[in-house]
Please model this.
Amino acid sequence: MEKLKVLLVDDEEEFVTTLAERLQLREIETVITTDGDDALRVINTERPPVVVLDVMMPGIGGLDVLQQIKRNHPKIQVILLTGRGSTNDGIKGMRLGAFDYMMKPVKIEDLIQKMTEAYQVSKQEKD
Amino acid sequence: MREQDTAFIGKITAAVTHEFMNVLSTIKETSGLMEDLLALSGENSFKHHEKFSRTLIIIREQVRRGMEISEMLNNFAHSMDEPEAWIEINELLDQLSILVQRFAKLKKVVLTLNPLETPLEIRIDPFRLHLILVTCLEYCFDHTANGGTVTMKALRRKNGIAIQCLMEPDSKSMGNMDEIPHELTGLQETLHHINAQLVPISGPGQQGVELIVHLKVK
Model:
């Protein structure tokens, strides 16, 4: 079976590194970046079908990164991670083309389920 | 307190709780990774396997608790953002009951919540509503016997809502409560700000105060 590849973007380095390790243990290929500019660069080289993107980041914010991804790579599916009580950011993100949004802290099983759904959509859009 | 001061406290508290949530998220993922590795290693792989598993469950539970408190504190901090906002009354009461849990615990009192049957959004100054309700609850905690229960109950009224803080009074406080206790009279200005009033409740075995808020309902 084809391995799912995900780009994880979060400015909390320890968090994103650990999350990546947990996903790798579950046979999911991960690439990590800790800021928005870097994420946009990595997308051009790695072409991940799914991006998990933190909304609140210093510098270029998650919603701006989302807009640029959807403009330049519309097939890439983006899952937003928002803080609790930041439902508005999630709704804004959906309007900008996010696949879905999830509130932190998220259960790893729920995140994998959402990533798998996003991956299916991404594959269909490629066909 | 001046609006600017309140907004400043809210801003700093919201920022710090956000950071605190990031710390807890990292602890959660790290302990999750340890659980994953432990599960992969098998039960007899090392001497303290079982103790590690139990310890990780404690970490998981304490992180969950920390996140819940931080989230409530973050929401409370955001209640200072604007002088008026739409809030859902059951959510607010739920949040408030978590925030005052420490006060209840110190007085050895149990706080229970009796929400509205259906959610209701109201436009109000959320910070002032918090202030009034916490003051009423503290009064009830102070006058309830050890091990007693204080109930926060929300009811719909014709032109608004009522939030009752009900207590099982201790022997010193037992008796008719015909007027608002002096500990709560300092709330008058705040009550006026949100177009609300406090009335005493007195019945057999139960006393308390009722906050009546005249509302603009969504």
Notes: Chain B touches chain A at residues 18, 21-22, 24-26, 28-30, 32-33, 36-37, 40, 67, 71, 74-75, 78 (CB under 8 Å). The CA atoms of residues 31 and 184 of chain B lie 46 Å apart. Strands of chain B lie at 85-88, 110-114, 121-124, 149-157, 160-167, 196-203, 206-214. Chain B is about 50% helix and 20% strand.
